[in-house]
Amino acid sequence: MKNYWTLFIIVVFTAFANCSTDSDSLVKNDDIIDNELYSPPINSDIWETISIEDLDWNSNALQPLLDFLDEKGTKAFIILKNGKIAVEWYGNDTNVNTNLTWNSAAKTLTSFLTGIAQEEGFLNIHDASKEYLGNNWTSLTDEQEAEITVWNHLTMTTGLDYTVENANCFEPEDLVYKNEPGTFWYYHNAPYTITHTIISNATNTTFDSYFNTKLRNKTGMNGFWVTIGCFDLYYSNARSMARFGLLNLNKGTWNTNTILNDKNYFNEMTTTSQNLNKSYGYFWWLNGKESYRLPSSEAEYTGKLIPSAPNDLFAALGKNDQKLYIVPSKNLVVVRMGENASDSLLGPSSFDSQLWEKINTLTN
Length: 364
What we know:
CATH topology of the largest domain: Beta-lactamase
Helix content: 25-40%
Number of strands: 13
Radius of gyration: 24 Å
CATH class of the largest domain: Alpha Beta
Oligomer: single chain
Mean pLDDT: 91
Largest sheet: 6 strands, antiparallel
CATH superfamily of the largest domain: DD-peptidase/beta-lactamase superfamily
Distance between the termini: 59 Å
Number of domains: 2
């Protein structure tokens, strides 16, 4: 009888322990559910919000952040948490409907679209660019030209001369040999812009049409491309930039619709793409790496790109401090659009760290 009761107690205790473990699992699952990404509807202005009080953020830090943004010429600022709007602010004569330029932050729209075109079989990023641009798209010899691939465009490693008079233009006379492809990194606009022609020729449609059909319309973005001189610029409202950020936070899926299925391409796009600039993917800037290079410079710098920001942050960065930050570890998307806020006109700037110091005070 004693053995029977001993066995009974063991069974009951084990069952109770298992119930406790299951209960703990349910709590963790609830946490996961709370962190699931919300995607706003694509044909509506409705966008769910969440208060900073519900997030247990530091509400005393909000107004200093907004004052800082205003002082720095910011026109639009958004923070998404789990896809929901936690902070949305407009200043300097703008509102939720104002279209603003992305500048070079729009390069990431092109890298994402390149992944779609490859997935659909229209191109291969490891093909020579001449497969889609034809012969003599540069002033290089046939042998030199054949060495440049679409991947070199995406990674800023074409080897084309960035010291020419019109480094932003892409007529053959502007595209001159300087380095062997893949041996030097330099932020060169002309090889980027001509990727629009690569996509257009590969898909046998206009770049704008392919972009709208495959990316913009599927996420509910607004916006349009404008050619100004040698530049193709994208304009949209700030919420559209936030939508694109949310799409990338969710690794290419919008709600239940997977827009970019190729996970290998997505990972290559948003991680170090080459060893020449470890803080650069396919037109995306990466934080938390051991070194970085900057636009308009041949130098390599030691340390993180944005010291005050989370290590896993990746970003679309454009002239005059257009910013789209994505932080997977915190399920955050941050948008800043407006006038130049720093001493640097292109891409990364001192404003990045200054802004993240303010964001950290709010969210930590």
